[in-house]
Design goal:
Largest sheet: 8 strands, parallel, barrel
Shape: globular
CATH class of the largest domain: Alpha Beta
Keywords: Carbohydrate metabolism, Glycosidase, Hydrolase
Strand content: 25-35%
Family: Belongs to the glycosyl hydrolase 51 family.
Radius of gyration: 23 Å
Low-confidence stretches: none
Catalytic activity: Hydrolysis of terminal non-reducing alpha-L-arabinofuranoside residues in alpha-L-arabinosides
Enzyme class: hydrolase
GO molecular function: alpha-L-arabinofuranosidase activity
Number of domains: 2
Length: about 500
């Protein structure tokens, strides 16, 4: 029944009205040598929870829950000063170096072989970033040779001597990181970067023709050079790249200000910005393709995305695994993350890779200490989307009430995306009620063929948008199974609490 204060909305679904195929690689992560992501995160030999390789068994189990399909490594800003040769060979002989990006000390105890062991154990596709800051195009090609080629050459034989005879077959390669940023070691302007990226890509592909390359897009939409950087790099590097990167971090930075300056309504409407960001860069891709009279396609790789605005101090003071950038996430952050994943579905025709930054401790869904860990609020929407969004993204029609926001004007209070996998018949609908105070009764209507059954329903919600999890209270904000609604002739009615994220799964007859 509709309560007096509840809003109402209607969502229309059609299993053949689609946006595009959902790439499994949009459910990716990012592991950088930064803070405690690697050391004391995924790799912690001193922990009683570590296996014989030093990998944290509890962390690995939680990462498997999310089912990451691709993992970007080793950076990030870190990669622009990284010498990959430091991380191979006997651990006792690996050099200790100052990592200038985060002013920390890098022990190199976790390097290429350790990362590949981690990726294989996790069952995820590795995505390597090469150093185009202090590194040369030859360094990049040498790394491809080391990682991928069969034995019989200098670097492939060196890999075999270090214990891995067969090539790893790394397919995805990032051509540097955030090279538009003045903070980046080896920062270049757009034309200079594009030219270096082209030459690196050529040499890397001549070394292994089977690889896919990702060029650097703008570091964020606030850059003075956005989107001209993107246009320039795409036009100059078009024929040598397969993907083009996007980076952005969302936030609600006025939380400590007087109440009248707090703009949570706009923050909870962040998907408006995410959608516009994709549309802008996708337009630059279409322009470059037209100008080159090209038949090839370049897709988007949103390989750094997350909420990040509180823990902003990145100075590690030359410590090993410094405790920096350890953001604490709350309910409203989880709702924004859910909407971000919704953007990936809405833009499934162009967004084919996405990596949340990062996976452990540093702006991450998981937090650890030596003897345990807990899941932050953002863990739950990430995991629910990864588990249930598959097949095609549906072009959903939404009729919902709107409200006025300072940043984006009139915005619907309901954010909806959906997926349908025809071969299996599995479908999923993902709904965010952005309202801070009103429940919403939503009617879902399948316009073509009604599901045979509803198979699951989960929800996360709360009265306090600032509620968060901790070691002391690890389950304050989680997703929980809810009772399945009644399916009546292709229609379902759900009552969504304010500040909530809900997932409903269904089963049609397989195609």
């Amino acid at each position: 029944m509709t309560t007096p204060e509840a809003l109402t909305a209607r969502v229309s679904l059609h299993t053949r009205r689609t946006v595009g195929a959902i790439s499994p690689l949009i459910f990716g992560g990012f592991a950088e040598h930064m803070g405690r992501c690697i050391y004391e995160g995924i790799y912690d030999p001193a922990s009683p929870l570590a296996d014989e390789r030093g990998l944290r068994s509890d962390v690995m189990a939680a990462l498997r829950e999310t089912n990451y399909r691709i993992m970007r490594y080793p950076g990030g800003n870190f990669v622009s000063g990284y010498r990959w040769q430091d991380g191979i060979g006997p651990k006792a002989e690996r050099p200790r170096r100052r990592a200038l990006a985060w002013r920390s000390t890098e022990t190199n105890q976790f390097g290429p072989h350790e990362f590949m062991d981690f990726a294989r154990e996790l069952g995820t596709e590795p995505m390597w970033a090469v150093n185009l800051g202090t590194g040369s195009i030859q360094d990049a090609a040498d790394l491809v040779e080391y990682m991928n080629l069969p034995t019989g050459t200098h670097y492939s034989d060196l890999r075999a001597a270090n214990g891995q005879r067969e090539g790893y077959g790394v397919k995805y390669w990032c051509l540097g990181n955030e090279m538009d940023g003045p903070w980046q070691i080896g920062h270049l302007d757009a034309a200079a970067y594009a030219d270096k990226a082209v030459e690196a890509a050529k040499l890397m592909r001549w070394t292994d023709p089977g690889i896919k390359t990702i060029a650097c897009g703008s570091s964020n939409t606030a850059m003075d050079t956005f989107p001209s950087w993107d246009r320039t790099v795409l036009e100059r590097a078009w024929e040598h790249i397969d993907y083009f990167s996007m980076h952005y971090y969302a936030g609600n930075p006025n939380m400590g200000e007087p109440k009248e300056q707090v703009d949570t309504d706009s923050y909870l409407a962040s998907s408006v910005h995410f959608d516009e960001h994709v549309d802008t860069v996708a337009a630059a891709i279409r322009l470059a393709k037209a100008q080159r009279r090209s038949r090839k396609d370049v897709y988007l790789c949103w390989d750094e995305w997350n909420v990040w605005y509180r823990a902003t101090g990145g100075d590690g003071e030359w410590a090993e695994a410094p405790h920096i950038l350890e953001e604490v996430y709350n309910l409203e952050d989880a709702l924004v993350v859910a909407q971000w994943l919704g953007t990936f579905l809405r833009k499934a025709d162009v967004v084919k890779i996405a990596c949340i930054a990062q996976i452990v401790n540093v702006i991450a869904p998981i937090m650890t200490r030596r003897d345990g860990m807990f899941r932050q609020t953002i863990f739950y929407p990430l995991t629910l989307f990864s588990r249930h969004a598959a097949g095609d993204s549906l072009d959903v029609l939404v009729d919902a009430p709107t409200h006025e926001t300072r940043k984006f004007g009139e915005v619907p209070l309901l954010d909806v995306t959906a997926s349908f996998d025809a071969p299996s018949g599995d479908g999923a609908v993902f709904l965010v009620n952005r309202s801070q105070g009103q429940a919403m009764q939503v009617t879902l209507n399948w316009e073509d063929v009604s599901p045979g059954s509803l198979t699951g329903a989960w929800q996360m919600s709360g009265r306090d948008p600032r509620a968060a999890n901790s070691f002391e209270v690890p389950d304050a904000v989680t997703s929980r199974p809810i009772a399945l609604p009644v399916l009546d002739g292709g229609k379902v009615t759900l009552l969504l609490p304010p500040l909530s994220f809900t997932v409903l799964t269904s089963r049609h007859a397989p195609a």
